[in-house]
Amino acid sequence: MEGECLLSVLLGQLKAFFLTLILGIFSGGLFHYYHLTVRKARIGRYWLYLIDLILWVILLLIVFAFLLLINGAEMRLYVLLALACGIAIYFRYLSRYMTPILSRAAQGSVEFSSGLARAIRSPFLHLFCYWKAQKDKGKTPPPGDSGN
């Protein structure tokens, strides 16, 4: 009876370890995609700080949500080791196969983001140019006014 309980606990921990290992592999892939996207986008230093912060918050929320599902968000040493091992496995063995795929995805993301930014910015630029033209229109003297 006691042996079955111990075995059940051990199998639960092994299941949590392997699921967390897969989560680490996924996190490594997400970080790799982010790295390729930032490299292709050639983002300025200050924007990069903001985007880094956003990435880590999103990654933290994803990892926490999955750890909540996997093992009730218990942070034990084997959980941290599984995450670290998953990331290491991704970068050591999988990244070379995923780089071409993620590079194309990163390029597509950069092009989509650029197009979206242009589409959002365009009406405001047209409105500003129209406003400036209307403002400048009022500064010219009326025709036939010689300044007398």
Short account of what is shown:
This protein has 148 residues and is mainly α. It is 86% helix and 0% strand. The N and C termini lie far apart (111 Å).
The Rg value, from CA coordinates, equals 27 Å
Q: Strand-residue fraction?
A: under 5%
Q: How far apart, in Å, are the first and last alpha carbons?
A: 111 Å
Number of helices: 3
Overall 3D form: elongated
Task: Calculate the mean pLDDT score and round it.
Answer: 88
Give the helix proportion (percent range): over 70%
H/E element order:
HHH
Alpha-beta classification: mainly alpha
The total number of structural domains is 1
Number of strands: 0
Regions with pLDDT < 50 over 5+ consecutive residues? none
Description:
- The chain crosses the membrane at residues 16-34, 46-69, 75-94.
- The structure is a single chain.
- The protein has one domain.
- It has 148 residues and is an all-alpha fold.
- The protein starts with a helix and ends in an 11-residue tail after the last helix.
- It is 86% helix and 0% strand.
- The model has no long low-confidence stretch (mean pLDDT 88).
State the main characteristics.
148 residues, 3 helices, 0% strand, elongated
Draw up the topology in text.
Layout lengths: L1 H40 L3 H27 L5 H61 L11
Helix pairs in contact: 1-2, 1-3
